[in-house]
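Format notes (please read before filing issues)

Several people have asked whether sequences and structure tokens are stored in separate files. They are not. Every record keeps both together, in the order shown below: the sequence lines, then the token lines. Line labels are part of the format and must not be stripped during preprocessing.
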Amino acid sequence: MVKASNIKSVPLALRQKLREPSAWSVLLSFGLHGIFLILLPILPFAAREASEPEIRQPVALLELTPEEQSRLPDFSTASPPQLPSVQPNDPFSFSPFPSPAPLAPPQGLPPLNFPPAPPLLLYPFPSPPQAVTPSPRPTPSVAPSPPPATPGQSPSPRPDASPTPSPERIGSVTDIAPPVDANPNAPSDVPNAESTLPETDTPASTPSPTPDQRQALLQEQQQLRALYSFNDEGTDTAATPVREKITGWYQEAAQWIGDEQTLDTQPIEAIAGSYPVPACLRRLSATALVGVMVNADGEVVDEPEPTVLVSSGYGIFNQLALETLSDYKFEATGNRAAYLVPVQFEPTAEICPPGTARAPAQNS
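Then the structure lines:
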């Protein structure tokens, strides 16, 4: 038996380690390995070692008898077997493979009709004018007028300055004395050189546009590009949205004219709209169908307002069609009426001269 005094003599740290399972696992591992090392020399397979004679055993030489040798084939007179001849083939020949079947001609495809892409209308920013610095003009030199001479006295020449006039200077303009003014106090008629120079206005340099102005110009260009670009939305009368829009206008027109009158569902004669000059570059032609309500005097009312029922494909023509009918005067019938009005836009020689059309591109 283990006495309690012996257990107490074990250090506290060691006792705490012995309480852990890992400590017992380590001790058990050391014990088993120690027992295995002790018993290893005693085991029977440990004493079994291969000896040198067992590793290298001599092999007996076998000799054949004459009868056995006679049964062996004679390789000295045997000729090599003849291989069948192979026909040389073209390295680029595909004769072993069957020839491919001829391809069937492609079936005719329906032509694809795409509307021509409208050109981009770009409006450049206005460039500021360059400031031109005026060149200074030379001030004309004015000869000072000599002092007035006293009557009865002649100017005496200086003794030290009596040069003999050369032949070249005789008769020159500088040798002629200017006329003497009788009234020396009168103001001189010689104009001032500074007053004769015209005043030149220095052009003020135009300031560069601010970011807000550039953004406004960019938005304006985008709006113009959208107005003159083709859009097929609302142009097909067979499309469901267009038919629903026309049906809704018929119902509204029937309420406007009342139950006593009959609504005419056929469009009236087409009206020519005001053709825009920027569209002359492409010679655009379009027609917009507009529904309008007319009072008893033949004037188009603002409520219900005119409506574009079938689009022309261009925003600028739809906008001009509404503006054209807003000021149009119909025949006064004494009753309310509703009309489907086609507004046509065609370029004319008066609005679009021959030189305004864009020249077609030449293929080089």
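For reference, the curators noted about this record: The first strand starts at residue 271 and ends at 272. The domain at 230-356 is CATH 3.30.2420.10 (TolA/TonB C-terminal domain).
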